[in-house]
Design goal:
Strands 2-1-3-4 form a four-stranded parallel β-sheet. The protein is globular and about 55 Å long. With 118 residues, the chain is an alpha/beta fold. It has one domain: Rossmann fold. The chain has four helices and four strands, in the order E-H-E-H-E-H-E-H. Helix 1 links the parallel strand 1 and strand 2.
């Protein structure tokens, strides 16, 4: 069974974490898919916790979508390291790690909209 997992940074600011959870709920509603959310650091639930939970529920393939604007160290080093560790500990688990949102056309449109509004 394939799952969808969106990974955010996490924040010390409670409202930021609440907005991320709202994003996950909107994605669930808009896609009709069982989308999960995890934080890389600073706030629960952690990436490891959500992967473990999904595995326990029967997910063996998980598409991981970084909710980051660039392919910095979190996307290219930290997340892959965690995925590798989880894969080695959980039999039959595989991941598809997507790229960041860096050059996504919709992100560019949103920035252009802000630029053009001034």
């Amino acid at each position: 069974m394939r799952g969808i997992l969106v990974v955010g940074h996490g924040s010390k600011v409670i409202d930021v974490n609440k907005k991320f959870q709202e994003l996950i709920e909107i994605l669930k509603k808009n896609t009709g898919r069982d989308v999960r959310g995890a934080n890389l650091t600073l706030a629960p639930p952690s990436l490891e916790e959500v992967i473990q939970s999904m595995y326990s529920e029967g997910f063996r393939e998980i598409t991981v979508i970084p909710y980051f604007l660039s392919n910095g160290a979190h996307v290219t080093e930290d997340i892959p390291k965690i995925l590798k560790e989880m894969r080695s500990n959980l039999e039959g688990l595989s991941f598809l790690l997507e790229n960041s949102l860096l050059l996504n056309s919709l992100v560019l449109e949103a920035i252009e909209e802000k630029i053009n509004s001034h």
